[in-house]
Amino acid sequence: MKLEIGDAPQQNFVKPDATRELEFIAPAIIEVIEGARSVTQLGGLINEDVYQTLRKKSIDLAHRRRAMGLTAADYPKIEIADIHQESNRPGHIESIVLLRFRGRLRAMTIRLEHRVGRWLATAITVL
User: The CATH number of 19-126 is which of 3.10.450, 3.90.1530, 3.10.100, 3.30.420?
Assistant: First the structure.
């Protein structure tokens, strides 16, 4: 078979699915922000930038809670309402996760990159 200029071999791009990872990561991030979970428990699932940002938020929250004389936070009851994932290029997923807790619906965006056989969150925004 002879390839002409402009012909490209067809590649089968399988759309990745990171639903399981998103179902764990999204509530866990809220638990870290709320002060109920240690950010170190997410160490292998988030990159260094996300880790440091969450660590700073959790330290600030702990200082505020101590200043107000509050005890450690309880784990919030978090329900995942919906997950939407899109992949524009191999090994990357842009997702939106809708979470319901405390009577509110919150949205979270999570960018995942596939590295060394696992998904790693490289950017997170809680809206």
Answer: 3.10.450
CB 30 within 8 A of CB 102: no
Strands (E), the chain: 79-86, 92-101, 104-115, 118-126
Residues 6+ apart with CB under 8 A from 25: 42, 45, 46, 110, 121
**Mean pLDDT, residues 7-20:** 64
Answer with the residue of higher pLDDT: 21 or 75. Answer: 21
pLDDT in tens, 89-112: 889 999 999 999 989 999 999 999
Q: pLDDT value at position 122?
A: 96
Provide the 8-state DSSP code for 46: B
| CA gap 20, 31 in Å, rounded | 17
CA distance 30 to 27: 5
Domain segments of the chain as ranges: 19-126
